[in-house]
Amino acid sequence: MTARFTGRTVLVTGAGSGIGRETALAFAAEGASVVAAGRSLAPLEETVALIGAKGGTAAAITADVSRSEDVRNLVRRTVDRFGGLDVAVNNAGVFRGGAPVADLPEEDWRALLDINVTGVLFGLQAEIARMRTQPGGGAIVNIASNLGAHRRAKGMAAYIASKAAVSALTRAAALDHIADGVRINAVSPGPSDTSMSLRPGETDAGRAARMRDAAPLGRVSSTAEIAAAVLYLASPEAASVVGADLVVDGGAAA
User: Residue 96's CB: how many other CB atoms inside 10 A?
Assistant: First the structure.
């Protein structure tokens, strides 16, 4: 355990599984008080229990990031619980719309924009509103994807568009608010060790075999590797990193 985030309050959305859970655990291991947020309480409570079992401090708060009132209440409750908001990780996202553009269902398009893009916007607005009132400002890390601003793939246009928007929004927000003391960056993972990188009916072993040929690194990234990139961007070591989009994808977008 290190002390990079001792005395800090960290909010992580989509913290009930995958990259969000791993990121919440990593911040707690480095001394932060963590709010694990998401739509469903049960998986958030599992994350909080895992943190507690290792001696960390955390709380679970439900929120739908596509609803601005939910996100404002989430930030308010975080501050009420732990006294401030030093770091926010806007990780909540969905994958839908695996179809060519001409055949894309409207409901898939709208869901991707509502959660992946508007959800990040609402997070930024509520988080910045709090952070810029604090003497120490704050740091925000948005989770984008290597699919979007960095590379494309057939049949995934809606997801690609939503994550490219996150990359662009991150850079624009970073320029708008660094003078407020709020430092904003993004991490763009490639395939990682989560269910989202599994094809329909694919097993972990099948994915591993596929990735040996499909990825320059020869494997998916671990969620711990993605979390490490998030913690770096949120840490004092990255104090002069503003508007970056750190790709962690084993070389796929190189």
Answer: 18
Quick check: is 159 catalytic? yes
The pLDDT tens digits for 54-110 are: 999 999 999 999 999 999 999 999 999 999 999 999 999 999 868 899 999 999 999
Question: Mean pLDDT in the chain?
Answer: 95
Distance CA 43, CA 98 (A): 26
Phi and psi based region of residue 7 (left: phi greater than 0; alpha: psi -120 to 50; beta: remaining): left
Q: Are 136 and 196 within 8 A, CB to CB?
A: no
* Pair of tokens at residue 150: 């960095």
The whole-angstrom separation of Cα 27 and Cα 227 is 9
Neighbour count for residue 43 (Cβ, 10 Å): 19
pLDDT tens figures, 34-70: 999 999 999 999 999 999 999 999 999 999 999 999 9
The CATH superfamily assigned to 9-245 is NAD(P)-binding Rossmann-like Domain (3.40.50.720)
Catalytic residue from among 27, 82, 109, 159: 159
Q: Please, what is the end-to-end C-alpha distance for the chain in angstroms? A: 33
Question: Per-domain residue ranges for the chain?
Answer: 9-245
Reading the block at residue 231, the tokens are 């913690």
- State if pTM tops 0.85: yes
